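thought: user wants a sequence for this fold. calling inverse folding tool.
action: design(structure=
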């Protein structure tokens, strides 16, 4: 598995396609596999896609203690350094969107464009996970039923309409089981996201920005996307009707079209 050294820690990454570099940053418990082939195939023409596993996740080296969202943003910048990439288009979803916000604020010269999907910025307008979704996940984990946990995670991350198709769940299940993520690192990620707050600094972001959010997102309410788009100068907001948290999984072709247009149309 290809890895590079980032601040003394091996990070697993994959590169595909040719063209302008595009860094994809996954969310909480997400891995390089969580993008799904339909989305990556639709994104690839004219772009070099770079996916990776966060510290302690998937094929990256185990993490060695608590970390912050800012630490993970520095990991992303370090990955670009290790790959010899001066500037890249950046997409971050969910926790990855929090990382992308910090990357844009801490390392603004490294971004060509910024895309923030189904994410959260904290502050007075920030809205965390719907309590019903939390109860569903906690109940599944308390049961000790691994299949039940997978199903609960799926149901709160996609729209009810999408969840009805058994083939959709089969694809999600195969992805989730292909690269397992340990519980300790998930809890460290949760702790990092709980204190994330860029709300007062979003106005400092200078990269051309698109914000994408599904309007049936149970994990991070669509109000978060609207607030982020209002706060970033010139940001474009795209609301996907009837779509849940994992918008790129539910609508890969449409999502890729929006993101490619934003990236390749930027001057």
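)
observation: tool returned 267 residues.
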């Amino acid at each position: 598995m290809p890895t590079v050294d980032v601040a003394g820690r091996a990070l697993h990454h994959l590169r595909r396609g040719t063209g302008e570099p595009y860094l994809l940053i996954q969310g909480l418990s997400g891995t390089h596999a969580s993008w799904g082939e339909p989305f990556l195939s639709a994104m690839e023409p004219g772009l070099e896609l770079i996916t990776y596993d966060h510290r302690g996740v998937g094929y990256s080296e185990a993490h060695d203690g608590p970390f912050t969202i800012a630490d993970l943003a520095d990991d992303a910048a370090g990955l670009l350094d290790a790959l010899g990439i001066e500037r890249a288009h950046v997409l971050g979803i969910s926790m990855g969107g929090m990382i992308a916000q910090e990357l844009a604020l801490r390392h603004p010269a490294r971004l060509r464009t910024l895309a923030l999907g189904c994410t959260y910025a904290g502050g007075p307008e920030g809205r965390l996970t719907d309590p019903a979704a939390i109860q569903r996940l906690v109940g599944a984990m308390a049961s000790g039923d691994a299949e039940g946990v997978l199903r609960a995670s799926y149901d709160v991350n996609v729209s009810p309409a999408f969840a009805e198709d058994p083939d959709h769940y089969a694809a999600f299940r195969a992805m989730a089981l292909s690269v397992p993520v340990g519980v300790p690192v998930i809890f460290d990620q949760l702790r990092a996201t709980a204190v994330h707050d860029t709300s007062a600094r979003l106005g400092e972001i200078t990269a051309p920005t698109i914000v994408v959010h599904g309007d049936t997102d149970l994990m991070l309410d669509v109000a978060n996307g609207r607030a982020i788009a209002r706060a970033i100068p010139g940001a474009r907001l795209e609301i996907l009707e009837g779509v849940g948290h994992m918008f790129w999984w539910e609508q890969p072709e449409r999502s890729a079209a929006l993101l490619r247009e934003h990236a390749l149309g930027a001057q």
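thought: summarizing for user.
answer: Here is the designed sequence. The longest strand covers residues 9-16.
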